[in-house]
Amino acid sequence: MPDHTTIAAIATPTGRGGVGVIRISGPCALSVFEAIVSGHRKIQPRVAQLSSWLDKDGDVLDQGLSLYFPGPNSYTGEDVIELQGHGSPVLLRALLDRLYQLGCRPAEPGEFTRRAVENGKIDLSQAEAVAACIDAATVRAGKQAQRQLQGAFGQHIEGLMQKLTSLVAHVEASLDFPEEEIPELFFNRLADKVRDEIIQPIEKLLATAQLGERLFDGATVAIVGAPNVGKSSLLNALAGRDRAIVSDTPGTTRDVLEVDFEVHGIPVRLADTAGLRQSDDLIEQEGVRRAHLAAHQADAIIFVADASRPDTWTPLVHTDVFLMNKIDLEHDDIPDHFISVCIKAGHGLDELRDRLANQLGDMSLADEGLLVTRERHRSILFDSNIHLEAGLLTVYDEDKLELTAMEWRRAWSLLGSILGIGDVEHILDHVFSEFCIGK
Predict the structure, then answer these.
(1) Can you give the C-alpha Rg of the chain in angstroms?
(2) How many independent structural domains does the chain possess?
């Protein structure tokens, strides 16, 4: 249920900085601002105004720019004031406390954006895109978040709902006039339209989910192989810096060493593991155990072999990408499923990056306008198709058309929950609990 109190919060990150921003939203935003500002010059909408902000004794707390956005033409749809002052945590806290004294209350996480949803400024999928923009760790993820923030994803879902509304209306019309004889062709066309216009587009969206979610959630990749095949050298090459010790001595890597890097816009946590071999060294045995555990938990595994040592060519764990290193040395015929590289010289690493990226997600979809980027959306789309398919089972039976209509209405309601339509208060609570305060 919409809250009509006036809220305030610091909208910039914790810590010292050049600029700190406080945001106020609600029916009393303007009167609260007028109570803290010196002078009597009326603030003009959407015009930055240099202001001094006062404490209860009339002393200046800080000075900076004030901006006024009257509702409904503001971010939240309410009257909004932004105070852009110095980025001192002490000054910002003092100013915020003064706002609380004047009747504002602390904003909950994501409450400004939640009010934007409740006031019809954006739909729920766009609100989630706001959080995605903040959390984006790569440029590709940021661009995808911006597409969704502009409303492309929500508009697509809304289009599917409109088509489904029309199809449900046809079913319910046939229920309202049972005395009319309905030709079999009607049911065939109805079923074909559901498959072609709703189920298949949803399936196309679902096919993007693995890549879309990993753009934001990232992925873990483990490097495995025998000792001295080049695993640590590979980690350093992909990370672009000397993170792991490289040595000719077998068993140098005893623990799992992790480093973050990016492959075609996907954030990746890369793990270099101990060489897989039998050893009497208790510490090395623990390293091998941890290597197996890291491989088991990884989203993808790169197996590295030494071209000059055929005994290293057989992986001891499930493998996604096969890498044959040291191809500059004398070697036997290399199996076709290996990517041939020389890590030391940097040869073949681009092909490795391409192969790894495609293992993590279908990169042919990377520049598509629409990707499913949240597990919530994927789950809803999957369940929607279950109900759509269930409706098809009874659509040819006039005595069971009520079941068809019921299943398709359920699918419509599920799709609506992506946009925040319907009784979705519990969904709003969950979504905005993941936001930062001040957004």
Answers:
(1) 29
(2) 3
